[in-house]
Amino acid sequence: MTDDDRTRAAWAAASMKYEREANEHLELARTYRLEPVEEQVLARDVHGAEVVHPMSGHGLDDLALARLGAASVLGLDYSPAAVRSAQQRADALGLPCRYREVALPATGLPDGSADLVYTGKGALIWVADLAAFLAEMHRILRPAGALFVYEAHPLVPLWTWEPDEARVRADRSYFAPGHVNDTFPAGGAYEHQRTLAQMVTGVLEAGFAVEHLAEHPDPFWKPGDLRAAAWDGRLPNTVSLLARRLG
C-alpha cells in the first residue's frame, strides 16, 4: 500500500464522524463563518462567484462562502462519507452548495468553469503532486479567476504542543518531503511537506500572479482544550495567499 493509499483509507474512516455527528455539525453549520483573515482577503472575489473547493471535507467552509455571497460552491472530496454528509447539511440549510466524489488532481470539470478556487484549513498537505494540482486549478479557473489558500504554515509540523515553552520536534525537519500524521485523521495518513518558498514558487510556475501573501500567528485548529506555547503569538501558524490566473 502506498502513502496515498493509506491516506485515502485514513480519511475514509475518519470522515465517518461527519455522519455519526450529523446533528452536531448541522448546528455548527448554522452559524459557522470563515476566519476573519479569509473574509477580508476574499471580499473582492467571493460575491457572485462560482466557487470550486477541492478537498472540501466537512463542507462547513462552503456554507460560509455561500453566506458571503458566492453564487454557488462545488465541493470535491474523495471521501464518500464527507460528500454525503456535506450535501445533506447544505440541503437542510437551503444553501447553493453541491458535492462530488473526486480523486484529485483531476476534477472532471470543463476549462474555465470557476471564478474562485478555495483551498483552506489543511488541504495542500494531502496533495502528492502539487504542480499537477495547481495546473488543474489554473485550467478550471476563468481568466482573472482567483486561487485562495489558507493553510497551516509549513513550519507548524515542527512545533511541539508543550504549554510551557515552544520547542522544535526532534523527529521533524522543515526540509523533509513529508511525515506520518499523528493527530487527525491519524491511521497512517501521510502529510506532504513543503517550504513556504516551494509553495509560492509552485503557484507562480502554474501561471498565477500572487496578489496577497501573509503569515499569521494563530492556528485554525486547536484540538480539545490544549493551550500550546507555540500559539502565544510569537511563531507563524497559518499562511494566507491569493493569486490571480494569468491569461
Label this structure with key terms.
247 residues; alpha/beta; Rossmann fold; seven-stranded mixed beta sheet; two-stranded antiparallel ribbon; 8 helices; globular
Protein described:
By secondary structure, this protein is of the alpha/beta class. The protein has a single domain (3-245), classed as Vaccinia Virus protein VP39 (Rossmann fold), CATH 3.40.50. The chain has 8 helices and 9 strands. The chain has helices at 3-14, 17-20, 22-31, 36-46, 60-67, 80-93, 130-140, 196-205; strands at 50-54, 72-77, 97-101, 114-120, 141-152, 178-180, 190-192, 208-216, 238-245. Strands 3-2-1-4-5-9-8 form a 7-stranded mixed sheet, sandwiched between helices. The protein has a two-stranded antiparallel ribbon with strand order 6-7. It is globular, with a radius of gyration of 17 Å. The chain starts with a helix and ends with a strand. The mean pLDDT is 94.
